[in-house]
Design a protein that fits this description.
The structure holds two protein chains of two kinds. Chain A is mainly beta. Helix content of chain B is 0%, strand content 48%. In chain B, strands 2, 4, 5, 6, 9, 10 and 11 form a seven-stranded mixed beta sheet that branches. In chain B, strands 1-3-8-7 form a four-stranded antiparallel beta sheet, with no helix packed on it. Classes of the chains: A mainly beta, B mainly beta. Chains A and B meet through β4, β5, β9 and β10 of A and β5 and β10 of B.
Chain lengths: 109, 115
């Protein structure tokens, strides 16, 4: 079952913050976040395991609420380099990821 | 070190032809995944290998699609009697092991166009 991401797209000015949400209808073992720039491969950002932990990568962090089967990705003080499409990948079992449709982030100067 | 590589990067073929797409994973990575990614969508799982064993092929659309990894390293995804609906980006990814607490590293993909 594909997770649902929201919003579909967001436009930011440099320095602004944004939140991307990822929801699943299934119990989750882990949530992955990837960023894909136009014409490139998805690049791994971080993994969150059940337990409600929060992780960070540069000024990008994420949380995972296993009870609500949701994860959120936080872009703080966005930079031009943050532009791209962000995908969450959810895992109900121990190896198989289902990816959302993505959230396109555009950061403008 | 070298990342995941795929070849060819672009493939144009006529309907009804067979195509073979190759994936060379990161050295030492045990697990290899094949995905298909439509424009504007996330990767869609096709199949998964641990070493040379195909553990899950539930995502392969039909029996025209097959994959192998005979020596536990390079993998080939074969599409027989291609149809226009097979046109897509095909990506592979590798991981140190088949566990979702480990990152998957994606290759650049093969863009397949069936005319």
């Amino acid at each position: 079952q594909q997770p649902v991401q929201s919003p579909q797209a967001v436009i930011l000015r440099e320095g602004e913050d944004a939140v991307i949400n990822c929801s699943s209808s299934k119990a989750l073992y882990s949530v992955h976040w990837y960023r894909q720039k136009h014409g490139e491969a998805p690049v791994f950002l971080m993994i969150l395991l059940k337990g409600g932990e929060q992780k960070g990568h540069e000024k990008i962090s994420a949380s995972f609420n296993e009870k609500k089967q949701q994860s959120s990705l936080y872009l703080t003080a966005s930079q031009l380099s943050y532009s791209g499409t962000y995908f969450c990948g959810t895992a109900p079992n121990d190896y198989k990821l289902s990816f959302g449709a993505g959230t396109t982030v555009t950061v403008r100067a | 070190g070298a990342g995941v590589s795929q070849s060819p990067r672009y493939k144009v073929t006529k309907r009804g032809q067979d195509v073979a797409l190759r994936c060379d994973p990161i050295s030492g990575h045990v697990s290899l995944y094949w995905y298909r990614q439509a424009l504007g969508q996330g990767p869609e799982f096709l199949t998964y290998f641990n070493y040379e064993a195909q553990q899950d092929k539930s995502g392969l659309p039909n029996d025209r699609f097959s994959a192998e990894r005979p020596e536990g390293s390079i993998s080939t995804l074969t599409i027989q009697r291609t149809e226009q609906r097979d046109s897509a980006m095909y990506r592979c990814a590798s991981s140190p092991r088949g566990a979702t607490w480990l990152a998957q590293y994606f290759g650049p993909g093969t863009r397949l166009l069936v005319l």
